[in-house]
Amino acid sequence: MQEYDLGIIGGGPAGYTAAIHGALGGQSVVMFEKDCVGGTCLNRGCIPTKAIMHISEVYEEMKNSAKYGISAENVGLDYKKVIEKKDEIVSKLRKSLELTLKNSGVSTVIGEAVLQDKDEILCNGEIYKCKKVIVATGAKPRQIKGLEFDHKFILSSDDILNLTELPKSILIVGSGAIGIEWARIFSNFGVEVSVVEMAEHLVPLADIEVSKRVERIFKTKKIKFYLNNCIEKITDKKAVLKSGETLEPECILVAVGREAVSEFEINCECVLGDACGKIQLAHFASKQALEEVSGVKFDKNLVPCVIYGTPEIAWVGKREQDLEEGTYKKSSLLISALGKAHCDDCTEGFIKILSQDDKIVGAHIVSKEASSLVQQVLIAMQNDISIEKLKEVCFAHPTYSEGIFESLFRLS
Ligand SMILES: Cc1cc2nc3c(=O)[nH]c(=O)nc-3n(C[C@H](O)[C@H](O)[C@H](O)COP(=O)(O)OP(=O)(O)OC[C@H]3O[C@@H](n4cnc5c(N)ncnc54)[C@H](O)[C@@H]3O)c2cc1C
């Protein structure tokens, strides 16, 4: 029997962050991973999708480069190479993570672990006695009745990453981050994309103006979407929608969320990341782990959300529909007002700021670099920096950040 201070089941962002910081803090740490270190984020989630997204954007830009005086005729696409490049990136990052774990002094055990007792983990026939145990077993794609994954026609977000050929058409069920990102990727590659969403608007968790803007962008990209709708039945690879339309996609991606994986008979007091079923984002998982292991606190109400693609979509804090009329100020600045947006030929989008009592309470951004812009606002929000004080900050020109600065003067 081996003994450790800290035993962690799951090697995703929650697990490896807890492991590295636990070890750096002087604890003896063992981490169990049944598949590949890096978890969903590195192997089946954030990283591979953004790698493919980037390639799809390069492809799209090349096809439309004549407007810049660049002639790129007969732009071709070898999708197998796209997947190889994605695998290369994932593998490079995984090796680097394995090395960081090793150099931090973490013992990584590859194998399926079982929590036998509150302080006892069984893996590969060995028992590990741990003073403290963290369960960070992640989540898996949610299935819905009638749309069970067959991994050929009805696909999960895991299956979609390993297609070696592009379909001619795809129907995406759900318009959360995963659904929207894949709709953009496939559309960039020239696939005919349709999205079906049960809610009244796309990206139902976003501020209403963000949802409406995404719908506008999808229309210009000729991505079809069916709102207040769902697939009622599938016969002979035909999807019949509640509204009566029949679609004949080459495949269906079901992206309706993820369910926590935590199936031990013994209850563990410390469950982190996607497994705890709260906010299922990689940065939430790693911040939770850091808080647990190193005591670095974070505000759970200020967790940024980002949807990648062109333009990016990002938000933090309260949405306009959450606020009572007359209790807040609002500013909305079109990205086309910014010089940098014209230089980049990326004028689609807006920056919307919501404030109460001279403090920002929400930011909703559709813009190139929205993922970085939202972070600037978040730092101000978390540190209670007033709008008057923010106005004193010097923002560089030409940048998208200037849009944040300009927005501060338009709150009314
Ligand atoms: C397509 C897609 C795109 C995404 N994009 C983003 C994004 O852009 N930004 C973002 O913040 N989040 C994104 N996410 C979500 C993000 O991947 C997760 O929130 C994050 O990975 C959660 O980390 P975790 O450590 O809790 O779980 P996971 O990363 O799922 O890791 C859990 C690990 O535990 C292992 N495990 C489970 N049971 C056992 C066992 N019994 N023994 C040993 N090992 C076990 C699993 O093999 C897995 O490796 C995306 C997800 C998907 C699917």
Can you describe what's shown?
The chain is an alpha/beta fold. It folds into three domains: 2-140 and 258-294, FAD/NAD(P)-binding domain (3-Layer(bba) Sandwich), CATH 3.50.50.60; 143-254, FAD/NAD(P)-binding domain (3-Layer(bba) Sandwich), CATH 3.50.50; 305-408, Enolase-like, domain 1 (2-Layer Sandwich). Helix content is 32%, strand content 25%. It is built from twelve helices and 21 strands. The strands form five sheets. It has a six-stranded mixed sheet, covered by helices on one side. A five-stranded parallel sheet has the order 8-15-9-10-11. The chain has a five-stranded antiparallel sheet with strand order 17-18-21-20-19, with helices on both faces. The longest helix is centred in the first third of the chain and has 26 residues, at 79-104. The chain is globular, with a radius of gyration of 23 Å. The protein binds flavin-adenine dinucleotide.
Describe the structure in brief.
The protein is of the alpha/beta class and 412 residues long.
Number of helices: 12
Number of domains: 3
The strand order across the widest sheet is: 3-2-1-6-5-4
Terminal Cα span:
66 Å
What is the number of strand segments?
21
Small molecules bound in the structure, each named once: flavin-adenine dinucleotide
